[in-house]
Amino acid sequence: MKRITIQNMDGTMEEVDLVNSFDVKDINKNFVILSKGEKIKEGMSKVYISEVVEETPGVYKLIGITDESIWDKVKQAMKEIVQGA
Fold first, then answer.
1. Band (66; pLDDT cuts 50, 70, 90)
2. DSSP state of 11
3. DSSP-derived pairing of the beta strands 13-24 and 2-7
4. Which of these, 2, 42, 73, 79, could form a disulfide with 18 (CB 3.0-4.6 Å)?
5. Over the stretch 1-52, which tens digit does the pLDDT of each residue have?
């Protein structure tokens, strides 16, 4: 799994595992699924889904998804990835 560096909201930098990245073309935004290695329970890891913007080469800033219509488009894109569409 690829490791990337992200900038947290407080400005600190953190290395995380990039699980997947995808774009939603009709809103022209890029999203990532990240893992910090946190376990929920045996065999399950906590993941984070966020819009991502490359601030400088190789450094990414996450932007929370607060708009319900954007979240619906992100969920649809993830379903298509899982289904292999």
1. very high
2. S
3. antiparallel
4. 2
5. 799 887 777 888 889 999 999 999 989 999 999 999 999 988 888 999 999 8
For residue 52, give every residue at least 6 positions away whose Cβ sits within 8 Å of its Cβ, in sequence order, or none.
Answer: 6, 21, 30, 31, 32, 60, 61, 62, 63
- How does DSSP classify residue 25? G
Which residues, other chains included, contact 26 with Cβ-Cβ below 8 Å and sequence gap of 6+? 73
Which one, of 24, 39, 45, 32, lies nearest residue 6 by Cα? 32
Residue type, position 81, single letter: I
Q: What sign for the dihedral angle of Cα 9, 54, 47, 81?
A: positive
AA identity, residue 55? E
- Identify the pLDDT of residue 85: 56
